[in-house]
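Hi,

Apologies if this is the wrong queue. I'm a grad student, and the batch job for Putative ABC transporter ATP-binding protein YxlF from Stieleria neptunia produced an output file that my downstream script rejects. I'm not sure whether the problem is my script or the file. Here is the sequence I used:
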Amino acid sequence: MPDPIVDVHQLRKTYRSLSLTGRRRIDAVRGVSLQAYPGEVFGLLGPNGAGKTTLIKMLLGVVKPSSGHARLLGQPIGSSAARSRVGYLPESLRVDRHHSARSALRYYGRMSGMTSAEIHSRSDELLKLVGLEGRDRESVRRFSKGMYQRLGLAQALLHDPDLLVLDEPTDGLDPVGRNEVRKVIDRLREGGKTIFLNSHILQEVEMVCTRVAILAKGEIKAIGPIDELAHRDQQKLIVEVLGETEPDWHAIFGDSMQVEIESTRVRDAFRLSIAVVDQDQINAVVDRLRRSDQSIARLEVRRESLEETFMRLVGTDAIDAVAGEEVLS
Ligand SMILES: Nc1ncnc2c1ncn2[C@@H]1O[C@H](COP(=O)(O)OP(=O)(O)OP(=O)(O)O)[C@@H](O)[C@H]1O
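Support response: The file is valid. Your script probably expects a header line. Output copied below for reference.
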């Protein structure tokens, strides 16, 4: 296993603030540990208020952790060595409206100490990568949100960082804009870039991420490759058997198998939905159906979707999404 690019151990952040109702304590991040490895697109998924932005801000050294420790590319978070190798796209990047894409990149390049020649050649490459070549001298005032966000990606990539951190990269974009940004992320993944992104958009994470952590109320509820997050017990085998009259399922399966029979007849077949935990059970169902001469017209193993996994893990938290909050009096 290569060394992790993002290495987080028991990171915790408690905000304390004063309000009219008294002092408040908010446990925004409560002992999070996670690792992201080279070449991964790692997704931090969670409802609003789960603590995603706070975690990202701690990684970038903008917010100081209350306890715990973390390293980016082997360097302690907050150190200039860590920061210099990270590209960041904030949730709402502000580019001055008088800029064009090219002049904005020139501005950001100068800020990070790049020479004019470096900025020039890198800008050409990046404008092409994010699909803004040909539109690079127009005022950003005319840009759609998706174009604006792609310019943000180019800005984050300017100094060729080893890690790209994206905070809600497609939030507020229409489907076209989302698709455009997703394509850029795909290209970066194909190029081997390590990306750490946070999002509350399930579909987004499902499409672009190789591994995911589900965060709710400041805690990790699950972590792993998307396929492995699905609950094995929620796996269902859908079988359709051809026939005019409904077979005697009890005679076929006996009492050893829990078979749920859907009442609806599907075209010229009957559909069964069977909870299965492993391949042996799937084989057993097929064996029994074939032994009793049933013709199988369709067979499908349906896994729990990421949305179902998410709702199972953070169902009530997704509705009551605010992180642990306590009024201290
Ligand atoms: N500077 C702050 N001071 C006090 N509380 C804060 C501060 N920043 C965030 N919080 C609180 O910490 C909790 C986590 O917020 P955070 O922004 O990290 O969540 P998030 O998952 O990024 O949510 P969203 O998707 O809405 O941006 C929330 O209850 C939020 O109100």
